[in-house]
Amino acid sequence: MTCENDAIALVAGGAGFIGSHLIDALLGRGWRVICLDNFQTGRFDNVRHLEREPRFDVCEADIIDPLPVRLARSRVPITHVFNLACAASPPHYQADPEHTLLTSVVGTHHLLQLAEQRGARFLLASTSEVYGDPEVHPQQESYWGHVNPIGPRACYDEGKRAAETLSFDFLRTARVDVRVARIFNTYGPRMRADDGRVVSNVITQALAGDDITIYGSGEQTRSFCYVDDLVDGLLRLMTHEQDYRGAINLGNPHELKVHELADLVVAMTGTRSIVSYKPLPIDDPRRRRPDIGIARRVLGWSPRVHLEVGLEKTIAHFAAEARAAADLPFVRSAVRRARSTGARRSTPSTVVAHYER
Ligand SMILES: NC(=O)c1ccc[n+]([C@@H]2O[C@H](COP(=O)([O-])OP(=O)(O)OC[C@H]3O[C@@H](n4cnc5c(N)ncnc54)[C@H](O)[C@@H]3O)[C@@H](O)[C@H]2O)c1
């Protein structure tokens, strides 16, 4: 195993929510990092604080295209490839389903080939979506899933399943040392306000005093892992020397109904928002909870951050973003216009969402 100070990681999707936190953690451990991103959903703001960091570099490219020559041919030794590149929220990955599928299949193939050339270790950020709308609860890695292959979520779910298939084929043929994380819902600072995920929706609506939208009855469950815990799991998975090579669930096994999350955020923000209900999107999973027995045993990993603590940091992030947006001249005038027409306190979040896009 490379000594950590000699490690050079390529983080595809490094300008995204999880990728940028992973990069901070890698640099904190003395690694050098190249962030590869097409900035589809990632933001330069997520890595702006690293602009002057000599061990950090950004390469703008799309992994469905042949990799840039400076990566593919360069003599810079890459010791680890983390593949997190893929829009992760339904509105974003469904906006261009063909690109989403190709990102997981063709893009993963390109990165596996790079890892093979360089003798690098490879980690795939897969997802709990490979289990689909699960018939088994909680979900263990041995469960093969219940996925609709032709529905609107298939570009993501089937793409990740195919990316896992490719990764394990490279592993079986001893071409690359592969690690696969099946990530469950993760939240924290640097999530986008417009990503349509339950945590960001509920918090931004609560902060703006808008109605909080719950899809379905709110009885469906999710389990939320704070991003620092997840990053710790990814690092342990990439660096462990155990014999285990199957996919590993990383997520928080604490299961919560979606309306309980909304109640908690309402209490924590002190908002006067009320909850409004809308129909459940097609193929939305009803229950989600990881069995993390393998992660505990192989990686010695389990989440440590309590939901209230993680939510507090996430609420602070969205509040700061809304404040920053409210300082923009066009937002200030939109807020004034909304106030003068008697609109509810909803304008800042609406404008944040517009600005983010
Ligand atoms: N956040 C979660 O709850 C969650 C859950 C399960 C799995 N995951 C997986 O973790 C990874 C990171 O998720 P995230 O929440 O940080 O999402 P994100 O959208 O914030 O990050 C994805 C990053 O990949 C980049 N990207 C997308 N397609 C690309 C392409 N073709 N070429 C180069 N870059 C590309 C985006 O610009 C972005 O920076 C994704 O692979 C996702 O599937 C996330």
Q: Would you mind describing this structure in some detail?
A:
The chain is 41% helix and 15% strand. With 357 residues, the chain is of the alpha/beta class. The protein has a domain at 4-187 and 224-253 and 288-305: Rossmann fold (3-Layer(aba) Sandwich). Strands 3-2-1-4-5-6-11 form a seven-stranded parallel sheet, with helices on both faces. A two-stranded parallel sheet has the order 7-10. Helix 1 links the parallel strand 1 and strand 2 (32-37). Helix 4 packs parallel to helix 5 (154-172) and helix 6 (198-208) packs across helix 12. It is globular and about 60 Å long. The model is unreliable at 341-357 (pLDDT under 50). The site of nicotinamide-adenine-dinucleotide has 28 residues, from helix 1, helix 4 and strand 5. The site of nicotinamide-adenine-dinucleotide (NAD) has 28 residues, from helix 1, helix 4 and strand 5.
Q: Per the principal axes of the C-alpha atoms, what is the gross shape?
A: globular
Number of helices: 12
Radius of gyration using CA atoms only? 20 Å
Q: What CATH architecture label of the domain at 4-187 and 224-253 and 288-305 applies?
A: 3-Layer(aba) Sandwich
Report the CATH superfamily of the domain at 4-187 and 224-253 and 288-305: NAD(P)-binding Rossmann-like Domain
- Name the hetero compounds present: nicotinamide-adenine-dinucleotide
Kindly identify the CATH topology of the domain at 4-187 and 224-253 and 288-305. Rossmann fold
The amount of beta strand, in percent, is 15-25%
H and E order: EHEEHEHHEHEEHEEEHEEHEHHHH
Helix content estimate: 40-55%
Strands across the major sheet, in which order? Answer: 3-2-1-4-5-6-11
Largest sheet: 7 strands, parallel
Residue-averaged pLDDT, rounded?
Answer: 90
Q: How many angstroms does the end-to-end distance come to? A: 42 Å
InterPro entries: Epimerase_deHydtase, NAD(P)-bd_dom_sf, UXS-like
Pfam families: Epimerase (PF01370)
Subcellular location: Golgi apparatus membrane; Golgi apparatus, Golgi stack membrane
Protein name: NAD-dependent dehydratase
